[in-house]
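HUMAN: You are asked to prepare a plain-text protein record giving the amino acid sequence and the backbone structure tokens, both parts labelled.

ASSISTANT:
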Amino acid sequence: MWTIALDSIAVERWDASDASWNAVVADHSEFSVDDYVPETGIELLSCPHCRTTDRLEVTGQWGGPLTYACPGGHTTVGEVHEDPRLNWGSNLLVRLILTEADPASRARTLLQMLTECRDSEHQRQRDPWYNGPDKRDAQIAENTDLTDSDLAQALHAGIGIRLPHRHAGRKLELLLVHSALAIATPAIRDTDDGRALDAAIRALLDDIRTEWQRMAPARVLVREQLRAWRDEGGPQVWQASWDRTLQLVGASLGGYVMGQEGRFAEAAAALTTAFYIEAATNASAPADVTAEQVVELAALHLDPREVPALWEARLRDLGHDPEDTTDPVARLWRRLRIDHTPAEPPRTPLYVPRSGPAVTDGIRVAFTSNYNFFPRSLEAA
């Protein structure tokens, strides 16, 4: 039988009411992903009678229920549940016994969990739809002063730990809260495992910072990128072609971001280039170019690798040198002629890779994709 007395005890609990709310969000289309709330949080163990969180005394034996008493003489027995999400008492007792017997064991446990999180993030980085770390994780990494020798204090400030009130969050955020509490304890911090935990936290947050900055271009909204390309200038007909594209697709792009590939932005750019070639060649307005003209120019019946040469010849006829770095039309064209045919099959069967040059892939997306921000008929838009 163990008896453990601590100034305060942090416990991680799952909240069934938050889970019920998330079920409502999932079932109703008027909600968005931003309406979900974290179901798990960390709070200080408190006496249900007097609500004190100070100087609680825990008793129990390995595998049994947790019993704790407050200085006011109130004793509480933790319930044992079949649902592991609700069985926090037994889990907490095991943790407290291990830490009491060997303080460094807490650091080793947290270090293993941090390593698993880092490995999982590195695995995500291989996904074609990866746009960078989670925004909240990046915010914590940016706000934590990694030059501070007192990492526990830096984490408190960077995370904004709300203890003694409940601190809810995602898996990594809660893991960092647990880690901050651990390395704030001298018996844990001053061990070799405690120092290894400190180093691992710093490395993980530095990695998240670096990755967040590296992937910044992938998080640019598609519509912002389209406007940036338009604002680079160019002939009047080129500008008018961009205006038509933005009129067609700009309002419905919503929160779509560039991603690692920029596929939808390049589809809009291919559409713009088609408007420009046809309008400039025929001395007409881009608004008068038909869907049939665009499809004919795309020559989708040919081998996709043959199409860029046809478009490039049309651009040369209009006075553009594809290698001219000062020409906004040529700069964008060099992006559209890149062949994206994958060298090997995709790592995940759920991902449909790009195929062929960006220009033909883009026109195909514009007219045959299931995404609703490109009209199937330009005249119908």
